[in-house]
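Protein Record: Sequence and Backbone Structure Tokens
======================================================

Structure line: whole-number tokens from a learned vocabulary of local backbone shapes, matched to residues.

Purpose: to set a sequence beside its fold so the mapping can be learned.

___
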Amino acid sequence: MPSLNKVTIIGNVGNEPEMRFTPNGKPVTSFSVATNWVFSTPEGERRQETEWFNVVAWNRLAEQCNQFLAKGKLVYAEGRLHTRNWEGQDGQSHSRMEVIANRVIFLDRRGGSSFPDEKTDEGAVVDLEPEDLPF
């Protein structure tokens, strides 16, 4: 039976990306992304909710995210949801849902940074305007 696990988010980077390396030397970068949803209550009051996503990028995409992303920058991230489970030092079980990115597009051009227009095995980083998005 077919199945699909795909997530697409556009939001602002919530912290400075953190790059580290596996024991085998593979780069991995983690960062958070905040998305906002604005709605009106039945009473007509306008409200905003913020949802936070933890994003993880690997290999060349991890290096590019570490190099070009910064707190507050607008980013498009696409990938799959993954739940990571571990046991803490206190013996408690913990879990965290993450977006394992296979594509990241740097949407924010403030600060004069230029981004590579390059396709990699791990995903794509392209020079794209927000109005170029297909939705």
In short: Residues 59-68 form the longest helix (10 residues).
